[in-house]
Amino acid sequence: MPSPGTPVEFRSSSAASFLEIIVETLQQLDHSARAQFLRGFFRSLTHLDLSEEKSVQLWDEILSRRQSLSANLGQPASLQTALVDVFTSSDLFRFPILIERDDLKKLEVSAVTDPLTGLSNRRLFQETFEKELNRAKRYAHPLSLVSLDLHRFKEVNDRLGHPRGDDVLRAVASTLRKSLRTSDAAFRIGGDEFALILPQTDAAQALALSKRISVVFSDVLRPLNISVPVSLDHGVATFPVDADHTEELIQIADARLYRLKHANHLQQSAEAREVSSPSPSSITSAPTEVESMPQTISTPKPQEAPGKPETKTASPIDLSPTFSPATETTLAAAVSASTLKVHTLVPPSGVPQSRPNYSVQRKAERVSMTGTNAYAVLGESSSPRAKVLDLGFGGVALELDSKQDLPESFLAVLHVPILPPVRVNLRPVWSRATSEGSLRIGCCFIS
């Protein structure tokens, strides 16, 4: 420790040494070159756009202030101290902070990055989405938003602990980096919620990417040996098909995400009940594909005598949908296949029954679609349309304007508000003619 009266040696940092070199160099330059250099120097250091004359004036004040500070302190004052003092007193600094450019860049990155996954955070998501949506509107390009959510993630934290939950979150980030293009952007919105912004991507491509992400995520998660079957649910909203504002697109994507999550939850609950108490007599096996050959379905004619229904051979209908399969959510991803055994209603007396006979109780009540303008397209857009009366896990009730023969199984595209078009395989299980001349048909879903 130095004794009293011994002068203290001033040890300058690398930044201070650099400034000292600048001082010596500027003394050797003429006024014009010095003014030009100082203007660029102050701009890079403080982000202030000053004139050359003002820059020279401030530099002279900094050197003068340094001398006065050194005299008052009794030891050399740094040029950084004098610089901050001059800029603050001249009201050019609202907050007197000087920071290295690299450190500032690190702070900017840290402010918009999720520390756990390394993905961008919600703050940058809002800014990026607004910017990409404006670009999509300007150039008339599609833009898709995908909302992602971890299914059964809370169970991982509760059963295995939060460190294992963090491993799952990092696995999601790794999956997204492997699956996305360089033009795409992934964000962690919060908790187990993620979002993707996909420029120049329509609904079909966004759905295909979402499915591919689910497959890649399973592969990434496998080495972690997580005992809880975690999966990624998704909801897609596309500009301009669904909406043209950020808030609306976010709401639509979230609504579709949580509909899928709720459907998956009910499906797993139903499967768990079936495993715990299987009833072979009440479960029917559904065909795995739609038969295209002509099928027969018995429907009574009003002019015929009761008890003598006519059996017709229905001509095969071209039920190839015009929608691309990738643009539609398959039924298996939205609802479980029906496990109800139902009796086909062929009234022996010719008097239609009011409702089918179920051999087991429904798993869930059906939701009425009356007044929602829900409809089903039977095949191509030129094919007949039918009203959707109600919808449930087991199937759907349709109403045709007139009687017509249908195959034993056929394809249909359901158009229900909020949901995207759903392509399903249906099998008629009961039919009933109404007094208005229309035909109501109850159909069960087949995989």
Description:
- With 447 residues, this protein is of the alpha+beta class.
- The protein folds into 3 domains: 14-89, no CATH class; 113-276, Alpha-Beta Plaits (2-Layer Sandwich), CATH 3.30.70.270; 316-446, Thrombin, subunit H (Beta Barrel).
- The protein has 11 helices and 14 strands.
- The longest helix is centred in the middle third of the chain and has 31 residues, at 246-276.
- The protein is elongated.
- The termini are far apart.
- Mean pLDDT is 75; it is low at 1-12 and 279-364.
Keyphrases for this structure?
disordered N terminus; Thrombin, subunit H; elongated; 38% helix; four-stranded antiparallel sheet; 3 domains; 447 residues; six-stranded antiparallel beta barrel
Q: Largest sheet, if any?
A: 6 strands, antiparallel, barrel
Head-to-tail CA distance between termini: 86 Å
CATH top level label of the largest domain: Alpha Beta
- In the predicted model, the low-confidence regions spanning at least 5 consecutive residues are 1-12, 279-364
The CATH superfamily of the largest domain appears as Reverse transcriptase/Diguanylate cyclase domain
Fraction of residues in helix: 25-40%
